[in-house]
Specification:
Layout (H helix, E strand, L loop, with lengths): L2 H7 L10 E5 L2 E6 L4 H9 L3 E2 L6 E7 L10 E2 L11 E6 L6 E6 L5 E5 L2 E6 L5 H18 L3 E3 L1 E5 L4 E6 L5 H8 L6 E4 L3 E4 L4 E4 L6 E2 L1 H5 L10 H8 L3 H6 L4 E2 L2 H5 L7 E10 L10 E4 L6 H7 L23 H7 L4 E6 L4 H13 L1
Parallel strand pairs: 2-4, 4-9, 12-18, 18-20
Antiparallel strand pairs: 1-2, 1-3, 5-6, 6-7, 7-8, 8-9, 10-14, 11-12, 11-13, 14-15, 15-18, 16-17, 19-20
């Protein structure tokens, strides 16, 4: 099966002739989506929606359509010691610069990724979050091809100073960054993916995706209380703290609904980068200490993020299965940024106070 075979079997017109636009930093997208998915996506992306610009990268969402035949799938290796099947890939022949199929194993949603093509098909209306991630992946791909580095981080900015926070999955970066949103003048930049470009100053770019947060983040922040019912909050408070910390139960936090309009900004000068290396078991006070990143490969491991199976390099090569990021470009991109290690015991009041001191300074 070739890319030509697939395109001949799909009806791109079913996604609609009038796309809506999205813009993040240097990237413009034209998203073709049928109703009611189109209206739901426009509502979700909110302030980042714009008129589709001429020459914008197209994204076609083909709800209910399928491949003409099932390919031979290969499981994509998961990073960070995670287990279970999540993605499967199949690289196609017959295209001048390569094409890849990606399948979300649990949902059956399938994607076609090739130069100038970004197509999602399958039960899209039932998996809106997966569709949102695919759209944002196109922003990541474009920036990566232009030399940006992808960090596993959350970030806020006041337009002059931008703080990004990394940590191992479940390490508290979302809770920490949302505490910074209580500071006057800050705006939400990203919850889980930050693109970094070196320079004077370095730049940070987020993607238009609202935070998906765990119950522990909600219980620890009175502003977020309305995201859970009183019954659910009571049940969660009865859990042992260790069980609550590790509970994977995601809730969408729509930034304008909680913080009001104008509290999102997807780009800013990257001035500070904190890496969470703290612990519930520590008896030491929480400290924010400057480090030399090139001498701390353990901290680099928390920052670097593989671009994953969707990424196609500028020369047409897809990211190899199981590939790990190269640390050198990250060290270079962050060379002008103040990088700190957050150590000691996990204390969100302490990190909020450190953030206030940073932005007040």
């Amino acid at each position: 099966m070739t890319l030509s075979d697939i395109l001949a079997a799909l009806d791109l017109n079913a996604a609609g002739a009038a796309p809506f636009g999205l813009r993040a930093g240097p990237v413009s997208l034209a998203v073709h989506a049928p109703e009611p998915l189109r209206s739901r996506l426009i509502a979700y992306f909110g302030e980042t929606v714009c008129d589709a610009a001429p020459g914008a990268d197209p994204v076609h969402l083909l709800n209910g359509q399928s491949l003409p035949a099932e390919p031979d799938w290969t499981d994509w290796q998961r990073e960070g010691g995670k287990s279970g099947r999540k993605d499967a890939v199949c690289d196609l022949g017959g295209a001048p610069r390569g094409a890849r199929l990606i399948r979300k194993v649990r949902s059956g949603v399938t994607f076609v990724q090739a130069p100038g093509l970004a197509i999602a098909l399958g039960p899209l209306e039932d998996h809106e979050s997966t569709v949102i991630n695919f759209i944002n992946t196109q922003i990541l791909n474009r920036c990566l091809r232009e030399g940006w580095q992808l960090a596993h981080a959350a970030a806020v900015t006041d337009g002059t100073r931008t703080l990004a926070i990394s940590g191992l999955s479940g390490g508290g970066k979302s809770t920490s960054i949302l505490r910074m949103m209580d500071l006057p003048g800050t705006r939400f930049l990203s919850n889980d993916r930050v693109l970094i470009s070196g320079g004077d100053p370095a730049r940070a770019l987020g993607i238009p995706k609202h935070p998906r947060i765990n119950p522990g983040t909600i219980l620890g922040n009175p502003r977020l209380s309305g995201l859970l019912s009183e019954t659910r909050k009571a049940a969660l408070r009865a859990l042992p703290p260790a069980d609550l910390w590790t509970l994977e139960e995601k809730y969408d936090l729509i930034v304008p609904e909680v913080y009001g309009p104008g509290r999102m900004r997807l780009d800013g000068p990257l001035t500070d980068f904190w890496v969470l290396n703290w612990s519930h078991d520590s008896d030491l006070p929480t400290r924010v200490t400057p480090v030399t990143l090139g001498q701390r490969p353990d901290l680099l491991g928390a920052i670097m993020k593989s671009p994953g199976p969707f990424y196609q390099h500028a020369d047409g090569r897809f990211e190899p299965n199981g590939n790990s990021p190269d640390p050198a470009p990250y060290v270079a991109a962050l060379s002008g940024v103040t990088v700190c290690e957050v150590s000691g015991r996990i204390d969100f009041d302490a990190i909020a106070a450190a953030g206030k001191a940073l932005f007040d300074g």
